[in-house]
């Protein structure tokens, strides 16, 4: 495998919105190349590749994986296809960066982790938030004891779903639709990194948007972590004018971070304690997807880990699935991180 300085050669599985708007610009910004695209629609593949300058297209995942000019694949198909596409890529010896959620069940997600481990390829999950400079700084503050013993966190991640995305995310449960798998799993990638092992969840979810939806488009949850930390989340596709944010409260202080649950390297972080309130400097702000790709490229060369590893992606999925089940049943639901043998 070539060093990251020469750039990975990417095959895209899925002609998706995020591939077009975020990942291709980030790949090229790092000097990586996009050599091939696979889409189930030949027409879509041809048009999409023409717009985005991808030289080769196919409707066959196997054909893409057989190419010598593909070092790694970025999988951004609908969620139910992440499993077969990852297993096929691992079998072909290609490194895998997969969109979230990693899969639709824990068993499938752990099988993806195991397949990549067995094949000796890197598996990363495209949770962009943990790599943000704001979140790295918040983790540093918490680890350094800036808030004392952590007690609670509050995540505000209620946004308006763009019109161009109001398709399968609202209408196709079989593809993993709904706000919990789309957004709550992102929240979990942040809170898991802060607080460790999630234990149980309770939640409520509703359909409240101005559209025909087959799944929940707004949810609130509370997740308990192993040290007794409680996290509260508000996730929605239906809120057009709110700011996103993260609060962390402890025995010795509180952190309030505004505009940090986004796809852009923005937001402010404030620390409040007995000495008063002050804004915290956040150095090293970068495109969040470039961070994910750079960490992934280093991992391919044995020089680190992905921003979110396969196992960490499973843990984020586990929280989202527990929240879904709690909202469905009205009962507090354990967060299942099994099987232990796969970790």
Automatic annotation (TrEMBL):
This is Gfo/Idh/MocA family oxidoreductase. Residues 135-255 form the GFO/IDH/MocA-like oxidoreductase domain. InterPro entries: Gfo/Idh/MocA-like_OxRdtase_N, Gfo/Idh/MocA_Oxidoreductases, GFO_IDH_MocA-like_dom, NAD(P)-bd_dom_sf. It comes from the Bacteria. Residues 8-127 form the Gfo/Idh/MocA-like oxidoreductase N-terminal domain. Gene3D superfamilies: Dihydrodipicolinate Reductase, domain 2, NAD(P)-binding Rossmann-like Domain. GO terms for molecular function: nucleotide binding. Pfam families: GFO_IDH_MocA, GFO_IDH_MocA_C3.
